[in-house]
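ARCHIVE CARD
CATEGORY: sequence design from structure
SOURCE FIELD: tokenized fold
FIELD CONTENT:
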């Protein structure tokens, strides 16, 4: 009759005639606390019990008690206690990546063959510990301890944009290709600052240091201000007492800053390679030469600086030689500050003002030409 009663109950439940299952008919597992479970001596493999401490069903796998569905233990949604970091972990124990998903979409992946975390379905890239795939243009954000976003990174304008969140873009911008911008998304130089620059500490310069200058676009460049050169004459045979004589002043080079990048010379001319303002000085030491037995020539040589063969500036006119009482020498001195263009050619031109007669440089190295770049 008892067997019949059970059959009737099953039929009634199956056909829906019973509205409630008889609790007395349910199968119950042996209850045990965690302490009791771990003190069971020689449990049979496959034994099952209900752990009243963490409310999970455990099975003995021949080595230890494990939550049903796990070979080594399980993690509760409310957390676990009594764990050991060397043996209790979430992850894989074989050569497989460990993946975390949300809504069945991969969000995090631990790559098994390298120390790398991939975020948002990023692909493996070299051996970087962290690789993040952008959401649209957004890459990474930083919040303070209150949860307020302060800074974030995104990919805009062909580069990496450091944003002060809700304040301004392009606080710092790394453009593809290597240029760095501060408050600009279009750096045209390796460092392009849209704003003032301050250097709090700067060392004293030495005589070999360069001067910095800013061009019309605001680009810093090594300045050639104070770059100069000096020559003295070696020629002592040219007659300077003749109209439109090009003076052979560039004989022996004393110094020339920046090599041929700024000044290029022949024996009679100098070419400036950069536009700018130049201080030009020429000192001509002259001597009259007796010719034809006449020692009273009364010659007078004048001189001017010329740019591209056109005389400019003041006339040096103190070259009078009287040939009386031993007065056979004189000198001319030119000093001009000129605005020159690149590739302008500078010469010194002499003119005859008085009698004919030969007038030459008084001696080798006794006349000089000096030029200096002012800006």
């Amino acid at each position: 009759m008892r067997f019949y009663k059970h059959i009737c109950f099953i039929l009634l439940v199956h056909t829906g005639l019973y509205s409630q299952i008889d609790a007395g008919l349910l199968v119950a597992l042996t209850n045990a606390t965690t302490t009791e479970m771990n003190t069971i001596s020689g449990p049979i493999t496959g034994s099952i019990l209900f752990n009243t401490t963490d409310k999970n069903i455990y099975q003995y796998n021949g080595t230890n008690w494990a939550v049903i569905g796990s070979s080594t233990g399980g993690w509760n949604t409310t957390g676990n206690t009594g764990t050991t970091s060397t043996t209790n972990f979430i992850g894989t124990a074989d050569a497989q990546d460990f993946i975390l998903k949300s809504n069945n979409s991969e969000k995090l992946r631990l790559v098994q063959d390298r120390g790398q975390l991939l975020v948002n379905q990023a692909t493996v890239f070299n051996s970087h510990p962290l690789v993040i795939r952008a959401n649209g243009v957004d890459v990474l954000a930083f919040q303070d301890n209150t949860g307020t976003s302060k800074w974030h990174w995104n990919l805009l304008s062909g580069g990496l944009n450091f944003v002060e969140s809700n304040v301004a873009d392009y606080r710092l911008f790394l453009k593809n290709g290597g240029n760095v911008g501060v408050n600009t998304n279009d750096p045209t130089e390796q460092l392009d600052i849209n704003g003032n620059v301050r250097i709090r500490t700067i060392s004293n310069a030495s005589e070999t240091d360069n001067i910095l200058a800013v061009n019309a676009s605001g680009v810093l460049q090594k300045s050639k201000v104070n770059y100069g050169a000096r020559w003295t004459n070696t020629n002592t045979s040219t007659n300077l007492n003749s109209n439109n004589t090009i003076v052979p002043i560039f004989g022996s080079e004393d110094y020339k800053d920046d090599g041929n990048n700024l000044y290029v010379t022949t024996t009679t001319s100098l070419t400036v390679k950069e536009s700018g303002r130049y201080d030009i000085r020429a000192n001509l030491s002259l001597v009259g030469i007796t010719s034809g037995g006449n020692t009273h020539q009364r010659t007078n040589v004048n001189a001017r600086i010329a740019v591209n063969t056109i005389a400019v500036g003041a006339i040096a006119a103190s070259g009078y030689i009287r040939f009386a009482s031993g007065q056979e020498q004189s000198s001319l001195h030119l000093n001009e500050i000129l605005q020159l263009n690149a590739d302008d050619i500078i010469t010194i031109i002499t003119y005859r003002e008085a009698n004919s007669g030969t007038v030459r440089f008084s001696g080798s190295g006794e006349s000089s030409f000096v030029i200096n770049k002012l800006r």
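CARD ANNOTATION: The longest helix spans residues 2-14. Residues 1-13 have pLDDT under 50 and may be disordered.
SHELF: design records, drawer C
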